[in-house]
Design a protein that fits this description.
three-stranded antiparallel β-sheet, alpha+beta, 13-stranded mixed β-sheet, single chain, 2 domains, 8 helices, binds zinc ion, Immunoglobulin-like, 18 strands
Length: about 325
């Protein structure tokens, strides 16, 4: 089955959030099958970690969906990362242990310190934790820094679209940092997140978790373990504007590459990318897209697609729906 969700959400428990955890769940339930509440993990005045955790625990009793408790951490390589672990795995302690030791706002900076933080978490939490690097374009993170931290097993996911329509070229561009990571053998996936703070109907600029961007995970059931597994193995894809459903991307028995998906809106273009370059482009679509092609050898294959511009919900102008399928690896 496919489930949708969002791992990047701020509640009123951090200085710039607006809604309680229960309100967030209530309002995003129609868009999301799971959530992670990820307040800005800073000083105790800005981030009320105990309050967030208490609200998450309450919400878990009331709503029958997985709700991860985590925080957006000030990483030694500017700027924000999220660590995800499952509830039975000292989820609260994990966050609490990071701020005093590794908060960049306390002067803990640089790739070496980043690797120390990752090594600390790996030692303490083993393979029951993974890291998402958020908005690598705010500020720009160098490819070299991303390659350095990719030596850690914890770094599994790089973000593409975060708040608003902020699309990271590091992740989106063909031949960008993501392709460099993949070319160097790092099995990193990409996701989108709402980075929800305040909804546009409440005077903000954001949409609810899952309303504008979606992570779609292939799972056996909607459980913490299955979500964790999908994110750490790349069994998911991400999109803006719900542009596709039910993608199939695999090699056939005869060694051809098969790509299929259902369209929920009008597509403009889909591209198959391998080893940092576009190897096939599609520009003609029906409700169900299906193609089988012969491809050259490659270390990995991935897909990105864009839809026709669609009107924004919350202000004048148009936005571009898009999707990214995580790679098939050939080694
Ligand atoms: Zn952030
Ligand atoms: Zn954020």
């Amino acid at each position: 089955m496919w489930i949708k969700g969002d791992l990047h959400i701020h509640s009123h428990c951090c200085g710039d959030g607006t809604l309680s955890v229960a309100d967030i769940v209530e309002r995003s339930r129609k868009y999301c099958d799971f959530l992670a509440i990820s307040g800005h993990c800073r000083t105790p005045e800005f981030f009320r970690a105990e309050k967030q955790y208490a609200e998450v625990v309450e919400a878990r009793k009331k709503y029958d969906i997985p709700i991860f408790n985590t925080g957006e951490v000030e990483f030694p390589i500017p700027r924000h990362v999220i660590f995800i672990t499952t509830p039975e795995n000292r989820e609260f302690e994990m966050l609490q242990s990071l701020v005093p030791r590794f908060c960049r706002r306390n002067g803990v900076e640089g790739p070496e310190k980043a690797m120390e933080e990752l090594a600390f978490l790996e030692k303490e939490w083993g393979n029951r934790i993974f890291m998402i690097f958020n908005h690598p374009n705010a500020p720009d993170v160098s490819t070299q820094d991303l390659l350095t931290i990719a030596d850690s097993k914890l770094f599994k996911v790089l973000a593409c679209v975060d708040r608003g329509e902020r699309r990271a070229p590091q992740t989106w561009d063909v031949g960008g940092a993501w392709d460099q990571l993949l070319l160097n053998g790092h099995k990193i996936s990409v996701r989108c997140g709402s980075d929800f703070h305040r909804h546009y109907e409440d005077g903000g600029h954001d949409q609810y978790p899952g309303e504008f961007v979606q992570d779609c995970l292939r799972v056996k059931e909607n459980s913490y373990d299955e979500i964790f597994k999908a994110y750490t193995t790349g069994a998911f894809y991400c999109m803006v504007g719900n542009i596709i459903s039910n993608p199939v991307f695999c090699f056939t028995d005869s060694g051809r590459l098969k790509l299929e998906f259902d369209l929920n809106g009008e597509m403009e273009k889909a591209e198959i990318i391998s080893d940092g370059r576009v190897i096939e482009e599609f520009t003609s679509f029906s409700d169900h897209f299906s193609a089988e092609i012969k491809v050259p050898d490659g270390k990995y294959f991935r897909v990105r697609g864009t839809g026709k511009l669609a009107p924004r919900k919350y202000e004048e102008g148009m936005y571009e729906p898009l999707f990214l399928l995580n790679p098939i690896y050939c080694d």
